[in-house]
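quick one: zinc ion bound model?
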Amino acid sequence: MATLFTAQCDRCDFNQTIAARTNYAYRLPEPPDVFLWTQFVWCGECRKIVQAEKLLTEEEIDAWLAGQWNRRIRLDGERYRQIIVGRQSPARCLTCGSVDIVAAKSGEHVATVLHGDCGGVVSLNRSGSARIEGGIDVYSAEGEFIVGVLKQYCYP
Ligand SMILES: [Zn+2]
Ligand SMILES: [Zn+2]
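yep, here:
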């Protein structure tokens, strides 16, 4: 299930519904694929709100793995750390690959992101959930789209 958000600008009539999908993964030379963390951003190329990579810091990875005893998740976390340590490119838009992105900020109740077209503030409100069909989109360790595969991803 993906969570749906409604995005609305406070300065113009821009509005959009967007689903927070979790079926993205990185592919390293050795399997298995690695969970890809995402965030909502304004993409300067797509001209809309999209999901982009969220590149966790090593501290955030430590916090995620602290007290985590599931072997699969621990393996995933350590492989994700390899990606972060070797990473050259900044976070990319998962739709078009652009690095011209502005991350949404999470507030107390809603997340907000600067509307690149008008300079207003877009609020993202949770508006429901939806079943998203399809498999996993697979990316390189530098965040470049490789292939879509028919397999469901289920963690973390
Ligand atoms: Zn606007
Ligand atoms: Zn884009």
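The helical segments are 58-65, 71-86.
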